[in-house]
Amino acid sequence: MTFALISALVVLAVLVLFVVIPYEVKHQNMDTTLQPHDRLLVNKIAPRYNGIHHQDIVVYYAEGQYRVGRVIGEPGQSVE
């Protein structure tokens, strides 16, 4: 039982450090989809293998803070 608990904690620590990060929505820029104080687990690995595509929800760093938004254009497209 102790080994199983320690193993589970190690797996959880690895996931949090390398695979997912917790994020709390702070802004209302995605009000119809995400509300302020909603909590997300952000997958850090998937974009490296699958890329980022139109309509994906992403967490990005801008103006000194992390923000959440939806991708509205891809390389080569123009956004008006």
From TrEMBL:
TM region(s), chain numbering: none
Q: What are the Peptidase S26 domain coordinates in residue numbering?
A: 4-80
Q: Which InterPro entries match?
A: LexA/Signal_pep-like_sf, Pept_S26A_signal_pept_1, Peptidase_S26
Q: Does Transmembrane helix count among this protein's keywords?
A: no
Q: What class of enzyme is it?
A: hydrolase
What EC number(s) would the UniProt record show?
3.4.21.89
Ordered alphabetically, the record's keywords are: Hydrolase, Protease
Name one molecular function that GO assigns to this entry.
signal peptidase activity
**A cellular component term (GO) from this record?**
plasma membrane
List the subcellular locations. Cell membrane; Membrane
Q: Which GO BP terms sit in this record?
A: signal peptide processing
Catalysis performed (reactions)? Cleavage of hydrophobic, N-terminal signal or leader sequences from secreted and periplasmic proteins
Q: How does it sit in the membrane?
A: Single-pass type II membrane protein
Q: Which Gene3D superfamilies match?
A: Umud Fragment, subunit A (2.10.109.10)
* Main location group: membrane
Instruction: Cite the NCBIfam families for this sequence.
Output: sigpep_I_bact
Which family is this sequence assigned to? Belongs to the peptidase S26 family.
Protein name as catalogued: Signal peptidase I
Give the lineage: Bacteria, Bacillati, Bacillota, Bacilli, Bacillales
